[in-house]
Amino acid sequence: MSPEWQRFDRRAVPVSAIFMTGVAVMAGVPSAIGLSDISVAVALGWVLPGAVLVVVAGTVAEWLRLRYSRYRVGPERVELHTGMLIRNRRSLQRDRIRTVDVTANPLLRVFGLVSVRIGTGEHAEKGTVRLNPVTRATGDELRRTLLDRAAEPVADGTLAVFDPGWIRYAPLSFVAPLLGASAVGGALNVADWVGLSGGLVEWTIDRLGGLGLIGGIAVLAGVALVLGVIGALGLWVEMWWSYRLDREPGGTLRVRRGLLTTRSISVEEQRVRGVDLVEALGTRLAGAARVDVVATGLATGAEQNKAQHSTLLPAAPTELAQRVAAGILREPVSPTEAVQLTPHPVAARGRRLRWALAGVLAGEFPLVLLGVLLTEVLLHIAWISALVAVPVAVALAVDAYRSLGHGIHGDYLVARSGSVRRSTVALQRRGIIGWTVRQSVFQRRAGLATVRATTAAGSGAYSIRDVAAGRGIEVADAAVPGLLTPFLEEPPQQLDL
């Protein structure tokens, strides 16, 4: 890249104008419908000037941003200067850059532009520089230039490519019921905007009145679930269409995906500290898992969830997921598959059963209380739902106990836990920088402990849950010899009499 100061592409101005027009339409239509009862002319008189003002203001603001923004990629630093009245100058050291993500929404794609996010892995926003927009060629050149720091060439190749058959796992996640509930709520909001919410409720009651309360609820739940499945399929296609995972020359793992909004996420191999094989309950029953990378310098928290920086393989057949995990770690067999996990004490099962039943009780108590105070219908709903919830909770608790396990395989510490979301993490032992041993009052009585391996990668800590207290200390000491030694109680020395 040239060390000279560069301007952003001016095609961002028409992009902003089109976007703000869409915003104005989305905000103006409900307002116009709400005012149409008074007069159509009055509605247009209020809405149109406001819409024009929004479009003009947004376009002018984007033009001013471009006019007073510039960036430079030098041999040592990436610099960004922005602002007209308040100048904002941001600078990143090139040797601290960990990620270069290239994203293009549909509007940017039409104009041949992309947005480039350059990050150092710090949690604060100060560790990020966003160059928006630049041409696609410039974005690809930035990604290659800023991440190509390998001391020697490494073998490149394709680790996984898109398979349309993976879409069958999309409805098996918990996204489907959430999207279904959102769709029902959205329909009620739209009906309320146009003043038809009462009519929609009455129409629904008329159609389902003959089915009874339980039957009506079941039909509504079924409709919501169908809408959720359709939404989950659409969301999966948008996020993972044209997926490809490559190991590129220079030591970079690159994920490309997206239908309307394309994304290119790059992870330096030298920052990889392990993998996490994630099996949601539905996908696990279908024999599938996804692969997340445990690496330093990735976005965390809300930003990670939004962009899914750590996911290198969506839900796919478990056999393929294990092969991809092995490929990411450059191992013949993934540690998550090769290690024989040590089970945890029976006391851990009791803890999970008690927590599961307490959760059911907490959910049923409000229904019982309201049923006593208001109507017996809620009491019937409470005992019927309890008949379903108690066996399900017990089954999940037993499954969660069976999922518990830990082990050491070569250079990796492997830990597994969870039922609704089972996670099997293989963490490089050299990436562990500390240990935290936690015991609640109930854990102490049961002789259990939760041992957490602290690392600078991924979520920051990975736990061996409800392991026998002595065994947990032994595993921690074996994984990183000497790290816990100063904190262990030494046996009393015998005195020579």
From TrEMBL:
Keywords carried by this UniProt record: Membrane, Transmembrane, Transmembrane helix
TM annotation in the entry: 12-33, 39-64, 169-191, 211-237, 355-374, 380-398
Keyword Lyase found: no
Pfam families: bPH_2 (PF03703)
Cited InterPro entries: UCP026631 (IPR014529), YdbS-like_PH (IPR005182)
Domain YdbS-like PH stretches: 69-145, 401-476
Claim: Glycoprotein is one of the keywords in the record: no
Name of the protein this chain belongs to: PH domain-containing protein
Organism field: Paractinoplanes ovalisporus
Source lineage: Bacteria, Bacillati, Actinomycetota, Actinomycetes, Micromonosporales
